[in-house]
Design brief:
607 residues; 3-stranded antiparallel beta sheet; globular; binds 1-deoxymannojirimycin
């Protein structure tokens, strides 16, 4: 054994000693002997060796190039990811990337039908592991959310969309600065307000940020959901509002981002809302305490609101679909089944139903506005959600539209504007809430899915009226409620009572304009939407950040800020405006997605 080389160490107190059995040939000697061997070879031998080396080098290059092509580069990953929007739904995209991944992950979820609590946690951990192995986003872990590809139609593509994104950023800025983590921003007092204490604005905004390509904001919101969204909370929440905003928002964020954190939170929330269904009739109680699980009727009366108990179905059914646990779907299907069994007038329903008796309140108002609206919307959308398989829902929807045509649709005396009135204790009232303006959009989707041409005709007429509710006002913004003049041709079409002049930044009209533009291509709807957007900019924007609902749409000098930015302004109004101005009809395709009543897109299932 010969100690030979001493390597100089970076520090004096460290010496590395290499030992060898043979003394190695000094480098210069080795080189000399190689040259000697080469010189001894004939010319032919040398040529053969060179040729072999050349062929070897070329094969090496070829193999390396092949390997590089196998690896997905960033661009490919992004555009595949991005097919979520234009062409396909998430499941399909995941199938393309990892043919066995989605089936397996879903299989695991479906295998855990009766699991709750700890078992369920364990289950999510298993899925997490699986996703980690496959390089997918992880359930509940701190993951990089995949970035949408702006070139594929996400993020603003034109000046109008850019303006809407700027509006969103302005709203977000105020919320972030003064109300972060709270339900809503009070933009004038630069403070926060809480309703349920669930960060409503954050959750309502998740999918809007995703489609607008605001990824920094999305990730910031995601971190809040992960670290600060506490669902075990001693607070009474309204089942409907929490379902459409929070459950719907989480499920939609899950679909767009493929981030299991959102599904995990959605499941926990679903479980905490479930006690509402423990009523004698199975019509859910309106409220529940998220911590104790104590459910009860509203504080102000004995009855649940009909539209509320019938507008939670899309979300609970989707939750079952994703988790494989049928309990959520069974609960809401039972509600629907019960409502279907009750007697109705021409398919129309009264606005109150009792959770103990299961009966409609006798003589309650019939309206497509407040407390009635989304019952009709969800009849159609549930039929769409399951790939048009539950025809009973479609038939009830069609019967209801016929009932409206017969009992509620009338025209103004002066200009023949069609509107939808109400039946109050059996008598017609020419009153229409702005909330009714969701209906043109719903009618247009129904027609797109094969329902009668008269539905589209009515949709166009009603959309015109809804727009007129904006255009007729000095601010260009609609009042909360309008009365229509059906008797006197010498009077204006629309009358607004002093108590109804407020505007809450509601989405229904721009929602319908989006559907009608998408489905007819008529640019008129975009022009109307742009005018409405400009009016929001002019009269509701608050300096420094945020938008505020206003007290009077009739007063341009003093529209009176009400100091409240509703979460649906970010979740719905700005989202529908962004979609209205999209040039890409495949962005959140209406053949792939159904929007819940809070504008959260949920995938249409394949039958
Ligand atoms: C939203 O919460 C939903 O659109 C609901 O269906 C009706 N009210 C508001 C928006 O106006």
């Amino acid at each position: 054994m010969y100690p030979v080389y001493y390597e100089s160490a970076p520090r004096r107190d460290f010496i590395s000693v290499m030992v060898s059995k043979e003394p190695p040939e000094p480098p210069s000697k080795r080189r000399q002997s190689c040259r000697r061997v080469w010189n001894r070879l004939s010319r032919l031998q040398r040529t053969i060796i060179c040729a072999i080396l050349l062929v070897g080098a070329m094969s090496g290059l070829y193999i390396a190039n092949g390997l590089m092509n196998e690896l997905p580069d960033d661009k490919d990953t992004l555009s595949q990811r991005h097919n979520v929007f234009p062409n396909d739904n998430v499941v399909h995209v995941m199938d393309q990337r990892h043919p066995d991944k989605d089936t397996k992950a879903n299989q695991r979820l479906h295998d855990n039908d009766d699991k709750d609590g700890e078992d369920q946690k364990l289950h999510f951990e298993q899925v997490n592991e699986e996703k980690k192995t496959k390089g997918q986003s992880q359930v509940g872990a701190d993951v990089q959310v995949q970035v949408p590809n702006m070139e594929d139609g996400v993020g603003p593509q034109n000046a109008q969309q850019k303006a809407v994104v700027e509006a969103f950023k302005h709203a977000w800025k105020g919320y972030k600065q003064y109300a972060w983590g709270h339900d809503e921003l009070k933009p004038i007092s630069k403070a926060a307000s809480d309703w349920f204490g669930l960060g409503l604005t954050i959750i309502d905004s998740l999918d809007t940020m995703w489609i607008m390509g605001l990824m920094e904001e999305f990730e910031e919101a995601r971190r809040w959901v992960e670290k600060d969204l506490v669902l075990k909370k001693n607070v009474d929440v309204n089942l409907f509002e929490t379902t459409i905003r929070v459950l719907g928002g989480l499920l939609s964020a899950f679909h767009l981002s493929n981030d299991g954190l959102f599904l995990e939170k959605a499941r926990e929330l679903g479980d905490r809302l479930m006690p509402c269904f423990n009523s004698p009739s199975k019509i859910p109680y309106s409220d529940v305490n998220l911590d104790t699980g104590k459910a009860h009727p509203p504080r102000w009366g004995p009855d649940s609101t009909t539209s509320e108990v019938t507008s939670i179905q899309l979300e609970f059914r989707e939750l079952s679909h994703q988790t494989g646990n049928d309990k959520y779907k069974n609960a809401v299907d039972e509600v629907m089944g019960h409502i279907q069994s009750l007697p109705k007038e021409n398919g129309l329903i009264p606005i109150f139903v009792n959770a103990r008796s299961g009966q409609f309140r006798a003589g309650a108002t019939i309206t497509v506005g407040a407390r009635g609206d989304s019952y009709y919307e969800y009849l159609l959308k549930q039929w769409l959600q399951t790939g048009k398989t539950e025809d009973k829902l479609r038939d009830e929807y069609v019967a209801a539209i016929e009932g409206m045509q017969k009992n509620l649709v009338k025209s103004t005396a002066a200009n023949g504007l069609k509107f939808i009135g109400e039946l109050v204790r059996g008598s017609f009232s020419p009153k229409m809430d702005h909330l009714v303006c969701f209906l043109p959009g719903t009618l247009a989707i129904g027609h797109h899915n094969g329902l009668d041409a008269s539905h589209l005709e009515l949709a166009k007429e009603l959309a015109k009226t809804c727009y007129q509710m904006y255009a007729d006002m000095p601010t260009g913004l609609s009042p909360e409620i309008a009365y229509f003049n059906i008797n006197n041709p010498g009077k204006p079409d629309i009358e607004v009572k002093n108590a109804d002049t407020h505007n809450l930044l509601r989405p229904e009209t721009v929602e319908s304009l989006f559907y009608l533009y998408r489905l007819t291509g008529d640019k008129q709807y975009r022009d109307w939407g742009w005018k409405i957007f400009q009016a929001f900019e002019k009269y509701t924007k608050v300096q420094g950040g945020g938008y505020s609902s206003i007290g009077s749409v009739k007063d341009t000098k003093n529209p009176r800020f009400r100091d409240k930015m509703e979460s649906f302004f970010l979740g719905e109004t700005l989202k529908y405006l962004f979609l209205l101005f999209s040039d890409d009809p495949t962005l959140l395709s209406l053949d792939k997605y159904v929007f819940n009543t809070e504008a959260h897109p949920l995938p249409i299932w394949r039958p």
